[in-house]
Amino acid sequence: MYMTLQMEENYKMLAKTLFGFEDILAKELTQLGAMQVEKGVRNVSFVGDKGFMYKANLGIRTAIKILKPIHSFRVTKEDDLYKNVKNMKWEDYLKPTGSLAVDATVHNSVFTHSLYTALKTKDAIVDRFRDREGVRPDVDLRFPDLKINVHIDRQLCTISLDTSGESLHRRGYKTATNIAPINEVLAAGLIMMSGWDGQTDFMDPMCGSGTMLAEAAMIACNIPPNLMRKEFAFERWEDWDVDLFEKIEESLLKKTRDFHHKIIGYDKSPSAVTKAKENMKNAHLDELVHIQHEDFFKTQKSGNEKLHMVFNPPYGERLENLNVEEFYGNIGTTLKHGYPNTNAWLITSNLEALKSVGLRPSRKIKVFNAKLEARLVKYEMYEGSKKTKKQDN
């Protein structure tokens, strides 16, 4: 029997995330029941058992990956990596005829190239099997039985098992995408940062393929974000426990809640509307989310109820034929004249363009959209005169 370790015992894990999302991720993990939660940079470490590892992969919205560290050691010269990796009991994790993939992150003067580091790690594992068994595992970058993560920071090398496989932003509901769609983990994190709690109507007035809408609906109803995924890496492990996984899934589904407001999406592109509707159907959210073919600048809010708005205005390749100043000016004008009693949040990497909105943001939060530094900004639109309203933080 492989995996001789007592996996049901508690062990340390690491959830990787995007810059600026560490606080939200730590809160999510704590609420889910993680122990010893500690924030790092773009990651949060925590302690849990195998069941919790399944739970974290299914239920955490702002994690990109859940890693399980299994060994760490010092590297001061190149040979240290090979020797230490080769001495590890890989037969506890992988059959000699299995397959593996290695990815690496390096911040080190000896190992400066991540691909080379991954290759040396793979060589050490393969050589151990060849020496012991006379056969060796294959490399399969797409669907390996075991995905291994190597992290070298200065002189400390940590070897982890990647429990997730493909990045957790790949929720499984999105088959149709628009140009430059927003990452699902980023969308969920922005919505959570904005304080959305499902107690008001929600709108994305430039919804593209519908990512914000889907994530907002799942947050409102407390639906686990990764139910639709085809596979997690741990399903190929030797100790995969399908009964335990199904129990965890069932326990998370019991915690879903009803939603009594509206989630609305607009887009002026008919093809975006079609794609967004298709994605909502895939996610089984089409009864909750209402998507319309509308130009936001020609709309106004219906009714007096509080509205929570989060959106990602077009940028870069989506802005080719647009006058940026005029476009952002129109955002400000539309919010000011058409959307009273609204908390409007938008993310942009065009920091100069924000000046054209013509409204003073009540909050600005630094985030990254892919590699681009961006700001999540909040505009509070009041009903009637601002002087008569107490500022809502």
UniProtKB/TrEMBL annotation:
Highest taxon above the source species: Bacteria
Annotated PROSITE patterns: THUMP
Keywords, sorted A to Z: Methyltransferase, RNA-binding, Transferase
Entry keyword annotation includes Transferase: yes
Molecular functions per Gene Ontology: RNA binding; rRNA (guanine-N2-)-methyltransferase activity; rRNA (guanine-N7-)-methyltransferase activity
InterPro entries documented for this protein: RlmKL-like_Mtase, RlmL_1st, SAM-dependent_MTases_sf, THUMP_dom
Transmembrane segments: none
Domain THUMP: 52-163
Any single Pfam family the record assigns to this protein: RlmL_1st
The protein's name: Putative N6-adenine-specific DNA methylase
Annotated organism of origin: Winogradskyella eximia
